Amino acid sequence: MVELMTPLFVILCPALAAPMILLFGKRPNIREGWTIAAGIAMFSLVLSMVPVILKGEVIRYTFFQTLFANVAFGFKVDAFGLIFALTSSSLWILVSFYSIGYMRALKEHAQTRYFFSFAVAIFGAIGIALSENLLTMFIFYEILTVSTYPLVIHDQTPEALSAGRKYFAYLLTSGVFFLFAVMMTYYLTGTTDFTNGGIPALGSVPRLTLVILFFCFLLGFLKAAWMPFHSWLPTAMVAPTPVSALLHAVAVVKAGVFGIVRIVCYIYGVDLMGAVYVINEHLTLGLALACIAGFTMIVANLFAIAQDNLKRRLAYSTINQLSYIILGAALLTPDGIRGAMMHIPFHGFMKITLFLCAGAIMVVTGKKNISEMAGVGKIMPRTMLAFTITAFGMTGIPPAVGFISKWFLCLGSYRAYQTISPVMITFLFVLLIASLLDVVYFFPIIHTAFFKEPEGAEKEVEVKEAPLSMLIPLTLTAVFSVIFLLDFILRLDIISMYVYRLVEIAVGNVMS
Amino acid sequence: MVRLILVEHFPVLVVAVSLISAFTIVVAGWVNKKSCWVISTATILLQLIMAFFILNHVLTKDTIHYRLGGWTPPWGIEYVIDALNAYVLIVVLFLSLICVIYSKRSIEHELPHKIVPFYAVYQLLITGLCGITVTGDIFNMYVFVEITSLAAYALIASASGRALKASFVYLVLGSIGACFFLLGIGFLYAVTGSLNMTDLSLLLPPLYGNRVVQAAFVFFAVGLSIKIALFPLHVWQPDAYTYAPSAVTAIIAATMSKVSAYALIRVIYSVFTLDFINNYRYVDIAICWIAAIGIIAGSVLAIVQHNLKRMLAYSSVSQIGYIVLGIGLSPITAWGLLGAIVHISNHAIMKGCLFLAAGSFIYKYDLWDIRDFEGLGKKMPYASAAFTIAAISMIGVPPSTGFATKLFLILASLQSAEVFSGSAYVFVGVLLLSSLLNLVYFWRVIERMYFVKKEELNGGEREGDAPLSMLVPMLLLAALCIVIGILWLTRLPLPFIGDALFELGVEVLP
Fold first, then answer.
1. Chain-centre distance of CA A33, in angstroms?
2. Which of B378, B397, B426 to mutate to test the interface with A (most CBs of A within 10 A)?
3. Which of A157, A393, B32, B282 is paired with A22 by a 20 to 30 Å CA distance?
């Protein structure tokens, strides 16, 4: 346990940037300068914590003790939290660059509000990542919900407003469940700290209470968009594309799955998850959660196939991929949790590339539907190449990094089959079927873009890429998705091995 | 006779200064109308400074006992100030100061011919509120309740038109409430022969089984329930709040119901004490249920309103439910009383800010109806921002004041599960549901102000916000919504909370 100020400085970056953005609303270049500066400063600060955590230490920073005994408002950076913090802080920089290009290319209105809300959303996301306990996490979780609302309704059309209402209706209602669960946990155990291996005092709580509490937590983390409570996410696709990227890859939904993993591993603990049964002895909490995740994976993919709007298809793909993470945690095996934790950054990088590509296509050609995208691959070869690589990754095929996390997930479900119950083998098949369905909905996009002739049949198609500020971020994320994999397989020890080590430390803590 | 240091004279000075100033205003206003506002503001500022000294003295030294005219209690009137009084006094005076600063322009606009009487009566209202807060004598408290109420009737009626009817309804119901309060006092005097609160709390325990004492409790409870507009006794409130001048609505909504809530806490804990309530668990649970129903009913009624001030009035009905629920839970857990005490200031700040903002919309554009609010966020950016922050705070989004209340009350409800069993979870559900209902009725306002596009665009020109003397109070309160919200979560107010709860005989928090 080390007491360091670094977490404070990390959270200060977006906290200071937000008012500055408002202040310089009239001067766009300076305003965007603040966003970028804060993003880079925050990422470097987060990076500076990596060596400490890799040594096996935990960084703490307490703002103040609250009126509630044993509950502090403070940060505790452990390996798992750092993974999420790294993901969101690194992607914030890229999305910021991209946003600047996107917003200026489309001459969007209310840009100051947009960048302000963006900064506050990151403030919330980082706060969630570094939180020491449930109460702190809840505070940042609600800030995240409220701050993303202006982003979702950015267009201010009646459609966007109704999407915004739906967004609030789902997520603030879920916040209510979360709050109840937090206070209930405090009432039952007298603490809300994330504890390696779970809060011990929960073990002596009656079974039914534990089950209800768990489902309250689950409803509280509706940001993870598990089915059947997922429909806010596709609806929120009315937002500008960088916002969708933020929602899907960087902050919102990741906060949801992050929370679920926190609950499974650090509040209930793996042992309790496998011991408490829901209806009868066969259906433990872990298995129930795995069933929800498995159901979501398959059904979301079937929905995805039916979508023609590219962003909506990607939205369903996100719902599916999030459930991979939930499933990984629910398997309650080291490999499963490893896969789940790795999938958070890896999915983040891949999904953000896909969204950035979708946005680039919209800016350049104005096309939103897949059926209209014939020949886009020839107009925007680089964009579509990035898209293709990461779409491969999503389905679990090299050269992008999705392969690794899925490999661990499969391993995890096999281990669960060996150690927990024979039923668990089902989830191996669910994983494989879901990956197959991933192929079914991603490949037609690639096929249409590259191999279908556009109907107008212009002979020579001019290559026309998006502005550089958009092209570079999406290229970077795609390149990183590949580097992650190469690094991991060839043991180059550049980046992903660090991620892997962090995950190892986290898993070591959780499973001890 | 014991020699008192200066601070120990402040309780009576707070009241006296205010009363003298009321008459001074009448005289001074005869000469110069403009002087009224200056005198009023200066007086309240002075009172506020005294209140801070009182709080400091109470926290660092001891409870202040001031004997009026040197008569020893229980024969003479005694002013008793502990941490709770001092705290309520500061809340009341601070909001009065905010409202008086605001009212300068607002009253010039709304009541241009009644400036002098307005400030004179306003100062009387403050006198009454301070009096209720500082007194340790139950009959004296009644007198101040009447002073406050009469001043309030007059202030509401000053807007004339529909306000006259609203004021009359309030007059009738308020008088019934005051009568009940007086009957309660009469009953207690009949059995104990004393009017001093401390004395009563010592004389009453052997008489707890006495029917007269029990009836007195009910009279107190019902009488004060009318004053705080607890559902279903709230009927006077929506009209009164809607038609009164904006500054008046703000001061009444922010302070009057809070002081009455304080009086309720005082009567329950300092006159009847905790032991009495503990004998009658079913009364306690009934109070909680009424409060819970009030919370939901108030919110639902607020949702169907189109008039902003009316909506806020119903929202107050709901919020008073929070305070009463806290009081109802307090015999079981200290968190309940803490929630109630905390919400006294929280609601005063939030509702004060909301009413001030609503008043500024009326002042500038004569906007009453929520449906006309399109584009207001552009036209009045600062007033709208203040409104939004206060509204978010009402919804209970962290780290606002509303969140702190919600947190304390939820924990209190959970802890009451051992006594109330299933009901406790109903209360938790009510608290959570109510924050969603708050979301519904506040968000439609915010959505209209900021996000709904106007059909005919006015070229987006900024037509100017409310004047500075109205904006500053609003923005100050909005900022406090966040600052105080964070403050309640920390351990900084712990000494005060410890003192206040200890004086009321409630178990001090861990």
1. 26
2. B397
3. A157
